[in-house]
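Anyone else keep sequences and structure tokens together like this?

Example one:
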Amino acid sequence: MITYHYDGTFEGLLTVMATAMAQNDEVNEITAQDDWQPDLFTELRHLETNPTTAEEFFTKCKKQFSKPVVLDIGKCFLSEESGIEKVLLDFIRLLFAYGEPIACNLANPTVMRVRKTSDQVSYEILRMQGFVRFRKLPNQYYYAAIEPDHNIVQFLAPHFTARFADQLWLIHDVKRQSGICYNRERCLFIPQVAINPDIISASRSNSFGEAHNLFAAEEYGYQQLWNQYFQEIAILERINPKLQRKNMPARYWSYLVEQVR
């Protein structure tokens, strides 16, 4: 049994997959953890990322499988779930062995895990499209901080590029320090966002405080108007905290402008 160690990137995982399949290795685990310790029955192999190998393997997958299946693979990787790398290797082996129809066989535990994980990521993308809250900065950029469970910030680009095509904006994944930035011409992925930490703190729900200098002069007024609107449209007799937490989970409340009940 072999455990592959890689650098945690998608290219790195593709390199591992291509190597493992070419050598027909019996893989026990694929890990990016530096402190992982093998047991007596497992061989640990560290595999350096090979961009050429990764690109060739991914191109082969895209030619062999439909776009939805390839997208499922990408979503599963960005889910960052523990052990998902080995699941994806098993899934791709199934696809090459039996063809794409195997991807519909939900009785297979590997296929079911891939479908479930992809659906979870898709659901969070949809949720974040509604939960992102922008705050205007002095430089005219609209800034939004998020902390999603999955690494989905790049999947938000098409929605917000279409919705706010005439604005300057930045969506910042605080948990991973990455983000996407739109300059009215194109949307760019930023692997490491450098921003004043006070802006992040002031972006948290109900913590605007006296940090007016961090935002555009009109921002605080906008927040007050939005909160007033949010409170006024509420029907007190129909407030249902249990249902609200189901549709708007508390873990997403930190960066909301409105004061959630």
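And example two:
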Amino acid sequence: MEDWPSLAFESFGLVTKVRCESPETFAGVGEALPPGAHVRPSGEASATVTVDRFGAIAVDEEALVGPRLSVASAEYVLAQLEMVLRRHVARHAPEHIFIHAGVVGADGVGVVIPGGSMSGKSTLVSALVRRGATYYSDEYAVVDPGGLIHPYPKPLTPRSARDPHRPIEPVHVSASRRASAPIRPGLIVLTRYERGASWSPKRLSAGAAALALLENVVSDRSGPARAVGVVRALVGCAEVVSGARGDAELAAREIVGLLRASAA
């Protein structure tokens, strides 16, 4: 493996090296790096990710993606590698906490929409961006120890309402709508899509909100203490509402109204 071509990158303070057996796969590694990653000269890295010609992917020899029966296409391997690298950084970034959430900026504050896959957060983020919000992420709220949320602008990809397991075409977000600086949260929206639901949110206590956020924190090796501190910082400076939603466009309109009412 030492003779496989390699690339090192840094993302949120974490340095990782990627080695690929296939030159075709290696040629596309730059496109598989996490949002905001920077290629850096090879040197000390916290972990090495290896990719063989059959598509098997391992982190420091811990197998994460198994091999295919035949030589895997570069497109397939790079899609798997992209997911592995995002999860690796989310788990092991030394300072930042990653929370499964969509995030936009509106009226000078961040709107955080926690939730796992297929909870409808990407669809709601898309609706908010169409209403003029600034796009931060539809996958992770990346939060520093002071409670500021950093941009993590992966392609904005809602899922089909008919088949929620299948992503549809990414939504184009213009450069003027993509975040470039951290933001402090002003509203945390705990919601999930339910067919026919009418948006009627209720305010949550700080304790209930913190528990809901902690359920969406990406686990890491340092235990819950660091995450608890960051979640407290988030909850301490934001209003928190909870409730099921139906149509994303209607919910987005109401969320914008909530922000304007709070600022008045």
